[in-house]
Amino acid sequence: MDFLAFLGARALAVLRGWGHAALFFVDLLGALLPSLRRFGLVVAQIHAIGNRSLVIILASGMAVGFVLALQLYNTLITFGAAESLGLVVNLSLVRELGPVVTALLFAGRAGTSLTAEIGLMKAGEQLSALELMAIEPRQRVLAPRFWAGVISMPLLAILFSAIGILGAWVVAVGLIGIDAGNFWAIQQSGVDVWRDVGNGVVKSAVFGVICTAVALYQGYETEATPEGVAYATTRTVVISSLGVLAMDFILTALMFTTGR
Amino acid sequence: MTKRGMEILVGLFVLLGMLALVFVALKAANLTSFNSGATYVLTARFDNIGGLKVRAPVRSAGVAVGRVTSIVLDPKTYQGVVTLAVDQRFKFPQDSAAKILTSGLLGDQYIGIEPGGDDVDLAPGANIAQTQSAVVLENLIGQLLTGKAAVAGTVMEAPQ
């Protein structure tokens, strides 16, 4: 009986947590359109979230491009297929690595700062103060950050892919000596704008929603103590990373497995 | 930082992202190699399509002029019906032939159109009458073996 009660209590707690998060998300969605009237707030948040993540995204993209080109060349050359290096690098970046690695970096770089910022606002009772002044905190504080995350993520992901391809180009053409014309031509013949690039952008937008929503929720629901904020920040990274990876599998299965 | 300075930086970031998208779409994907241009439809029937796939290129004299848009089996004749989307700019004579060819020894298969000499061009939706099926490697090997056997047979018989 004790065991049954324990099991039931846990299940109810999990369900309650999910329901709470879903209600929060619906409330947030309701605040999205009204918040656009103060677009300056969104711009300020894009600066805080997007611009400031630029350096780490570009550096990682470049490094991934370099390493992919070097590693793949070693394998491809044994099959006499070194010419298709550009295609393999391009597809793996545009379809998978660009959106996913960007989302993981974004969760670490921007998600944590969102959670900590909102958690401290809550701890300092700034959110309650806003409410006292009849300012809806979701509209004024949360929604602009959500917009910024959703707008920034696809931009960052495509930048990651582009710089990665350029990095691979540096290694493949400059270092290894693959013909530059061949490097680009095989990509142009093998990569489809809508199917590959378009789906990559869709993926990164979905990841943007996941990462930002999780970060905001964790910040908004944090316990108003230093430990609470620390715990919430950690959970932001763990939950958004796992969420991104799980969603990536689902999206890949939906996008890239159907025939042809 | 002033508000204006921040706005300029955000504008730069957005512009950079757009540029990256344009770069990937134009330089590293197939947006430039006719995708959007107007096309017309041709069909061709093959006894065996081999490893031909949807979206395989259609080439004439080695130049890409279109793509395969669908492949279905005709339930009556048991032939593979291949639908081609060919660039509007290129018209082919009515007696042109469609062949399933392979790029390189083990490369992907594509459709090659060999223009005929007729004065009338193939109309949109027309069927290409003359076709040549894919060369299936297994059949080829089979033929080679039976051919070898036949040759061996005649050589054995020859001394008499």
Structure description:
The complex is a heterodimer of chains A (260) and B (160). Chain A has helices at 2-35, 39-49, 54-78, 85-123, 126-132, 137-176, 180-190, 193-220, 226-256. By secondary structure, chain A is mainly alpha-helical. The model of chain A has no long low-confidence stretch (mean pLDDT 91). Chain B folds into two domains: 1-32; 39-142, no CATH class. Helix content of chain B is 29%, strand content 30%. Chain B is built from two helices and eight strands, in the order H-E-E-E-E-E-E-E-E-H. Chain B is elongated. The N and C termini of chain B lie far apart (104 Å). At the A-B interface, helix 2, helix 4, helix 6, helix 7 and helix 8 of A face helix 1 of B.
Draw up the topology in text.
The complex is a heterodimer of chains A (260) and B (160).
Chain A: H1 2-35, H2 39-49, H3 54-78, H4 85-123, H5 126-132, H6 137-176, H7 180-190, H8 193-220, H9 226-256
Helix pairs in contact in A: 1-6, 2-6, 3-4, 3-6, 4-6, 4-7, 4-8, 4-9, 6-8, 8-9
Chain B: H1 3-27, E1 39-46, E2 57-60, E3 63-73, E4 80-87, E5 97-102, E6 109-114, E7 127-128, E8 130-132, H2 137-157
Parallel strand pairs in B: 1-7, 2-6, 5-8
Antiparallel strand pairs in B: 1-4, 2-3, 3-4, 5-6
Short description:
The complex is a heterodimer of chains A (260) and B (160). Helices cover 87% and strands 0% of the residues of chain A.
Judged by helices, strands and strand pairing, the structural class of chain B is: alpha/beta
Number of domains of chain B: 2
How would you spell out the order of helices and strands of chain A?
HHHHHHHHH
Give the chain pair forming the largest contact, with residue counts.
Answer: A-B, 35 and 27 residues
Strand content of chain B: 25-35%
In angstroms, what is the radius of gyration of chain B? 25 Å
Q: Gap between N and C termini of chain B, in Å?
A: 104 Å
Termini gap of chain A? 54 Å
Shape of chain B: elongated
